[in-house]
Amino acid sequence: MIEFGNFYQRIANSPLSHWLEVLPAQLAAWQRESLHGKFKDWFNAVDRLPEITPHALDLLHGVSAQAEPELGPGQKEGIEKMLRALMPWRKGPFDLYGIHINTEWRSDWKWERVLPHISPLEGRTILDVGCGSGYHLWRMIGAGAHFAVGIDPMQLFLCQFEAVRKLLGGDQRAHLLPLGIEQLPELAAFDTVFSMGVLYHRRSPLDHLYQLKNQLVKDGELVLETLVIEGDENQVLVPGDRYAQMRNVYFIPSAKALVKWLEKCGFVDVRIVDSCVTTLDEQRRTDWMISESLAEFLDPNDQTKTVEGYPAPIRAVIVARKP
Length: 323
Known about the structure:
Layout: H1 5-12, H2 23-33, H3 39-47, E1 56-58, E2 64-66, H4 73-84, E3 91-92, E4 94-96, E5 99-101, E6 105-106, H5 107-114, E7 125-129, H6 135-142, E8 147-151, H7 155-167, E9 174-177, E10 190-196, H8 205-215, E11 216-228, E12 236-237, E13 252-253, H9 255-264, E14 268-277, H10 294-297, E15 298-299, E16 302-306, E17 314-321
Parallel strand pairs: 2-4, 3-6, 7-8, 7-10, 8-9, 10-11
Antiparallel strand pairs: 1-2, 4-5, 11-17, 12-13, 14-17, 15-16
Helix pairs in contact: 3-7
């Protein structure tokens, strides 16, 4: 079973220590009551991976690890088999000892769009909400973060994260907890909070923005990346049953409307720092994610529209400060 004792020890003498009043009970209940039917298989794949201390580790330019001497063909084949047992891999890519996990998303491209516009991460304590496999947690550490905590209720992502951590020598600077933002108390302890690819999945987007704000220290920074539409500050798309084949998409505002939402929630210095159309090169099917991807979600005759006739995905990055 995945253990969280190292995380508890890490936060015990930190500004996050009051989280220990509720967190162990939450995670114990999760282990007891909420495990996915495939969790045992996923965990077994992680358990069978070797813990390797990399000779060379690069978290600044990507997430890559190398051994010296290089791993033999048989060892590489065994590691790849265990990693493929954790498919589909959506957020990445990862380069681990000559094994390239070619994920559905080029999350490195998103990171390159975000990083120039945010406060330097050097020495900061960071929360990444809806962190997926934890790819960006490692990039945050590579950018100098002191400590990076990710939360995501999807248990496959937890196992993917723990698999990567094991292959990075058991690095304890990043942790992933199988929680949703609504399960966090008001910690007010993070210097930077990221919410990337989450807001449109929330039935109440303003509540989500307040929840993010409650995790930040005074003058802490929110980095919000989400789907937007073109339009003025009054434009919001409320999709019907599906948007780009996703069922749980509730509100897609214009970037200007999102600025107003953030200001309404009490954020200041709100600014739109990037906006771009999601391309078929950035989100696509690979041999590590073999089900449908963006190409199948767009109108085959008009790629400016989804199959439902809505505007094709545009993603904006907005940075704001908690006063």
